[in-house]
Write a structure and sequence with these properties.
There is one protein chain. By secondary structure, this protein is an alpha/beta fold. The protein folds into three domains: 104 residues, Helicase, Ruva Protein, domain 3 (Orthogonal Bundle); 178 residues, P-loop containing nucleotide triphosphate hydrolases (Rossmann fold, 3-Layer(aba) Sandwich), CATH 3.40.50.300; 77 residues, Winged helix-like DNA-binding domain superfamily/Winged helix DNA-binding domain (Arc Repressor Mutant, subunit A). It is built from 14 helices and eight strands. The longest helix is centred in the first third of the chain and has 18 residues. It is globular and about 65 Å long. The two termini are 38 Å apart. The structure holds adenosine-5'-triphosphate and magnesium ion (MG). The site of magnesium ion has 3 residues, from helix 3.
């Protein structure tokens, strides 16, 4: 094979369009100086953690907001800043980030906390993956904190609504008073389900919820600033004027979701690369939006329980069969098809009420749009089948 034909095979890897892929990779957590349009939220979270930076008890907070509004990003970035600030002040603050969508049982979440604390303290202790209970993993955490004279621990419980039980919450709130550790403990709870608020306040001990914040969706201007701040991901001059504002406008129209906006920008760059174009143009944005929708849908499906998959399949089937651009379906129609699919797969269908709740959740995640009409509830089509 000649060099030039090999180059042809790998030509879609690009190089002429995207200069720094990481900056437009949605799994990448950008540095503090890349965070735009969240000054108020940053100072609110900062003031809650501030006492921790001088070795005093931090406030525990809860952050709500729709998907892609910067909750995880800001919680993590400000916590990392707090670690550095405490160190400058001569105090030891450490943290654990627990993603309850990955670690949703009390044992898994406690293990994730122990392992994170172990890693952040550079303790090099053996925290086995199996064979211990949640309370044993927490004991390991308290030991680590005590042995390393840690003044403050911040535990971030992301997607807390997915946590299946409350033991870790209870023990975090009582660890100090029950004499397990001298470390002050603060918890940042995060959820993208505002409707989960009441349930959470019943679940969480009042000592763990000093304050709560709601992050609003980004408007077009903020999204534009976020994207502009990442435009150095591209080679000089390849982003046609108007591309960023078009993507920002589209993302703002939908749900003000920054993750989606960043992904659209990345996909637009990939389209230009695949086409061998020298510029990313405005007419590539529509296809990029479609691809970003597909990406979001795929990640949603892969993280969903079986019944949500059947429900989404029912919606997708109805949408594909429907000829109208903006079809709406009655819940009963969706429920009937969902029931058929679930039964075909050998599962007992959930009740209609439960399915309604799931639909509400999906709507919140930006997949469908629910609308109550006088005749009942309609569900608008999912906008990403071909
Ligand atoms: N203010 C911002 N400045 C720069 N980039 C941002 C900002 N907010 C969000 N982003 C980008 O969007 C991505 C998604 O944000 P984040 O993970 O914080 O969303 P989230 O609110 O936690 O959403 P979810 O509820 O789906 O978990 C981030 O990784 C980042 O790339
Ligand atoms: Mg998040």
């Amino acid at each position: 094979m000649t060099d030039s034909s090999r180059r042809d095979i790998f030509s879609s890897a690009g190089g002429d369009i995207i200069a720094n892929r990481e900056l437009v990779d949605i799994s990448h957590v950008p540095a503090l100086d890349r965070i735009v349009g969240r000054d108020t939220e940053i100072s609110e979270v900062g003031s809650a953690l501030a006492p921790g930076t001088i070795g005093a008890p931090p406030e525990s907070i809860t952050i709500y907001g729709k998907t892609g509004t910067g909750k995880s990003l800001i919680a993590r970035s400000i916590t990392c800043e707090a670690v550095a600030e405490a160190e400058d002040n001569g105090h030891r603050l450490t943290y654990a980030y627990v993603d309850c969508s990955d670690d949703d049982t009390e044992t898994q979440a406690s293990r994730a906390m122990a392992r994170a604390v172990n890693e952040h303290l550079g303790a090099d202790r053996d925290i086995p993956m199996t064979g211990y209970s949640g309370s044993q993993y927490r004991e390991m955490t308290w030991d680590l904190l005590n042995d390393h004279d840690v003044d403050v621990l911040i535990t971030i419980l992301d997607e807390i609504d997915l946590l299946s039980d409350d033991d870790i919450l209870r023990s975090l709130s009582r660890a100090k008073e029950s004499g397990k550790t001298d470390t002050h403990i603060g918890v940042i709870s995060i959820s993208n389900k505002v409707e989960y608020r009441r349930e959470l306040s019943e679940r969480v001990d009042s000592s763990l919820q000093d304050r709560e914040f709601v992050f609003d969706p980004y408007d077009a201007e903020q999204l534009q600033a976020i994207l502009t701040n990442r435009s150095d991901a591209f080679e000089d001059g390849v982003l046609q004027e108007g591309v960023i504002s078009l993507i920002a406008a589209k993302a703002a129209q939908e749900h003000g979701d920054a993750r989606k906006a960043v992904d659209m920008l990345y996909e637009a760059g990939r389209i230009a690369e695949r086409k061998g174009a020298s510029e990313v143009t405005e007419d590539m944005v529509e296809e990029a939006e479609h691809r970003a929708n597909v990406n979001q849908f795929k990640s949603l499906i892969s993280g969903s329980v079986q019944h949500v998959k059947y429900l989404l399949l029912a919606l997708a089937t109805l949408t594909t069969d429907s000829e109208k651009e903006h079809s709406q379906f009655r819940t009963s129609e969706i429920y009937d098809l969902y029931t058929t699919i679930a039964e075909r797969e050998g599962y007992d269908p959930l009740s209609q009420n439960r399915v309604l709740e799931l639909l509400d959740e999906q709507a919140f995640l930006g997949v469908t749009e629910n609308e109550l009409t006088s005749g009942g509830r309609d569900v608008e089509r999912i906008p990403f089948t071909d």
